[in-house]
Amino acid sequence: MEKLYEILKSLHPDVDFTAEEDLIGKGILDSFDIVTLITEINSAYDVSIPAEEILPENFRSAAAIHALITRLDEA
Fold first, then answer.
1. What is the 3-state secondary structure (H, E, C) of the chain?
2. Which CATH number is associated with domain 2-74?
3. CA torsion through residues 60, 65, 66, 67, sign
4. How far, in Å, CA of 27 to CA of 30, rounded?
5. Whole-model pTM?
6. Phi first, then psi: what are they for 60, rounded to 5°?
7. Stretch 3-13: mean pLDDT, rounded?
8. Phi, psi at residue 40, to the nearest 5°?
9. CA 25 distance to own-chain centroid
């Protein structure tokens, strides 16, 4: 999860991603951030995020993103 926090911090260093629970609803992550995040996750975790998984609920918090990565890694 530390690697994910590093990726998120590179996008928005001022946000406490360990505590934030609504990254999409609060406008912290926008569509450009999501594209960047997906690219970084693909590289760092060697997982591919399919288009059907690019849903707001999968990017709502660091925990949700980590759960997505874990689920895709186990598939």
1. CHHHHHHHHHHCCCCCCCCCCCCCCCCCCCHHHHHHHHHHHHHHHCCCCCHHHCCHHHCCCHHHHHHHHHHHHHC
2. 1.10.1200.10
3. positive
4. 6
5. 0.94
6. -70, -35
7. 97
8. -65, -40
9. 14
